[in-house]
Amino acid sequence: MLPASLLTRLSARFGDRFSTARPVCEQHGHDESHFAPVPPEAVVFALSTADVAEAVKACAEHGVPVIAYGTGTSLEGHVAALKGGVSIDVTGMDAILVVRPEDMDVTVQPGVTRKRLNDYLRDSGLFFPIDPGADASLGGMAATRASGTNAVRYGTMRDNVLSLEVVLPDGRIIRTGRRARKSSAGYDLTRLMVGSEGTLGIITELTLKLHGIPEAVSAAVCPFPSVEAAVNTVITTIQSGVPVARIEFLDQAMVNAVNRYSKTSHQVAPTLFFEFHGSAAGVREQAERVQTIAAEFGAPDFLWATGTEERTRLWAARHNAYYAGVALRPGCRTWTTDVCVPISRLAQCLLETTADLDASPLTCTVVGHVGDGNFHAMLLVDPANPDEVTEAERLNDRIVRRALAMDGTCTGEHGVGHGKMRFLEEEFGEALDVMRLIKAAIDPQGIMNPGKIV
Amino acid sequence: MLPASLLTRLSARFGDRFSTARPVCEQHGHDESHFAPVPPEAVVFALSTADVAEAVKACAEHGVPVIAYGTGTSLEGHVAALKGGVSIDVTGMDAILVVRPEDMDVTVQPGVTRKRLNDYLRDSGLFFPIDPGADASLGGMAATRASGTNAVRYGTMRDNVLSLEVVLPDGRIIRTGRRARKSSAGYDLTRLMVGSEGTLGIITELTLKLHGIPEAVSAAVCPFPSVEAAVNTVITTIQSGVPVARIEFLDQAMVNAVNRYSKTSHQVAPTLFFEFHGSAAGVREQAERVQTIAAEFGAPDFLWATGTEERTRLWAARHNAYYAGVALRPGCRTWTTDVCVPISRLAQCLLETTADLDASPLTCTVVGHVGDGNFHAMLLVDPANPDEVTEAERLNDRIVRRALAMDGTCTGEHGVGHGKMRFLEEEFGEALDVMRLIKAAIDPQGIMNPGKIV
After folding, report:
1. ipTM of predicted assembly, 2 dp
2. Which among B159, B158, B127, B128 has a CA at the least distance from the CA of B143?
3. Entry pTM
4. Residue B349 belongs to what domain range?
5. Which chain A residues are within 8 Å of B434, Cβ to Cβ?
6. Statement to judge: residues A234 and A281 lie in one domain
């Protein structure tokens, strides 16, 4: 129960942008994960940094939890109000504040989604490359250190945030850094806030790096005789210094799902999807080099194209993969694993994982950002069936422990939320204590998104 | 004065690898900056992580300061023992532990220097790109978030450290992350430690990203009619997406100094030096595109070459710049400024700075990593002449304040040490409080390199 004085204060300050209505709270208690929703007790719809600062300050004075909410597309229960409190919805903070073409950067409010930013930028010759699949808010993407298909060339949110404005747990507003491209001035607060999932503060403004839209793009698709052959092609491609923009992997089960879903007739085999960015001559050269490498690993059916329509056709299977996977068992929820391992261990990790999945009664598919060593097993689970939930948990545990044993991480890009917390001790050992010290120092009351990360 | 019980303990533990001899202490109290040396009271020569951990633990139990020492090539007084204490020299921790060509990474001890690492890697086809000029230790480079000439393409130490082993202020040993190329697991302790200058812990092991030695390299040099024309060429080059590896700037005074020092006859003009990495066709294409851009900005004398000897000849002026600058006034110390601004402000920042330097009685030159917006004014100062020191201080203050007003940083790559501390309040405002909270949480006794950063 929220204290009456807080309810009065927030209601007076925010009027109809403050709500305790049940449907509103319920909508703010769940993301796209398999976890049960946990609604907050109230929602503030913020329109400005001052709104966020005042709401946080009011909550802090009452020791009440605060949870930032963007598009609700996270996958580890990040927005669940595990200890009650107030959700601060920043989707109304959706202004693209300044585009600076000369500096190739942009300042946005946290509710701007990545697709809207790229639509807005279209005529500038610039784009923002991070593509986690969902049309997530940029604030949420920074908060979870998101990445996706373009990370192999353009990096993750870690690499593409220049500076942040953040509301601290006591309501003060800070800026984590300047717009200079590099700096050695003090502790890297920008990188500390990126990936902190609203547990150290709420992001209210982001300055992001932009990249030039490539002069030419080419795409390719190639089925492989084995998972190993596909992964070895990836390793050799990266080692050869081919600056590939995307390398995506679908396992045999996923290609099969896509064929069913999209009525296509792709060869049912482990398959790689490539995208190359550069000059016209450059993308041709890149595609030819990868074609040669793939052939060396026994894959002669390398198809590539530069025309937009042809490229879209080649990549359709990858783009439809998520929905094709889900469609294998309508009505189910998807439990998505997210390990990332050093690329030398990827073939073994994928092969052992595939063997686990094959031996499981659950319907499962695999899709991977293999250029980074990151892949997702999509486990289709009927949430009403406790045996299936237990089985998904068992598989996820095995996959995470395997990745950790290979010097990998439990989460490549989805974040910790409350879903991955129990693996952090194993992943970090005593370093987790340092995270706890930082959390306690910056948020001594523990009101910022409690029950997440540490 | 160090407590007798600490002296006894360290002496018993380290034998002749522990010293309180005056020359040894003096050698560990200065770096390559213009600041007066401040020697520690004792030096431990560490050979292992256990050595560092035990030395730190002993000091912590006595509340005695600890300062990490590598090659002593820092530029902001980082190693000065401002509050006395024990210097831990890690130059003996110089093992290259594991090279993993498949993962393109390497694990090293902190005393390994960048040149030795690259010599060692030569036959592997891989290299470590960060080149800050000095043959610094990799531990020191991580501690100061160093970068240098290759940063425009390969990033800084921030981008090229995968994970660190760190001895905490209480002597515990942590690892900040796994070897996976990306992770969303918890707070980014790796990036927190990179740039923390020994104030949060001592780096005892580094896992670094490696890059493929490019198939082809080409180099170019081009004099410009004005600083503005040179900077506009830089901006256009980067916006066009030319993946240039290095873009370095020398001002007219510096080219003049080089001509005198190396008996060359370069046109005395603002000059850019380029290096291109890629395939044979790729580097040709890159050079041709930049040549076209330079010509558009009124610079027809673009010279480029791919042969090793020819490349070395073209870049000789850049490589000799530091010593050529110093040679303008033998016996002086160099006070090197280090601001970095958004690239759109670089022309104005450089022009106004050059006007300041021209109006000053000091001998000054400018060299810049202009692809990142970073440049150094080298001010030659007779340390025995207080007027000159005051004048250098005045110039440095003006240059920093100008950069801050342009949304830049007081230090692009040298770090804060004690030399830049007084600018952090202006650069970060209340965010500096967050740095102080982190420092107090991780190092509550304040024994780690006290008097630096915060």
Report:
1. 0.97
2. B158
3. 0.97
4. 329-416+425-432
5. 168, 174, 189, 442
6. yes
